[in-house]
Amino acid sequence: MISKFLELILDHLKAKSYWPLIEPVFTLMALYVVSGVIAYQFIEWRYHFSPELGTFLHSYIVKQISVVFLTFALLALVLGTSWKTGVRTEVGSRLGSWVRTGARKMAVAGVMVVFGTGVFLRLAPHRLSHIKIKFLESPKSFSEYPSPP
User: Fold this and answer.
1) E strands along 36-144, which residues?
2) Which of 17, 88, 116, 129 sits CB 3.0–4.6 Å from 71 for a disulfide?
């Protein structure tokens, strides 16, 4: 039922003149949803555990998937878009301007990849080293000085 509804919406959008503009966004969103579903299915398969949808959507796995897709979307925007304000009249320094523009785009892409990797690793879970249990009051069966055997 839902797939038929989505198919109707997709067919309607493909008939519109603005479809080439929104097709990349639609494709990225579809890949994002599919990767989330695959991650959920992997957790069910690997750990034999079906988390509630709200718990899964607030997990670090969904946050990491979101960071990766946001990084890819920004990279596609920066590398796939020509940011020229007007048509240049000079033809002489095409190669130099291409290198400068390409280098600038690559530098921006590198910064975005480094930032995305940093956020991705920051959201990753860390192993516990020491666990301390603090009681509000000492348990009745606890003795600070154990009795000799």
Assistant:
1) none
2) 116
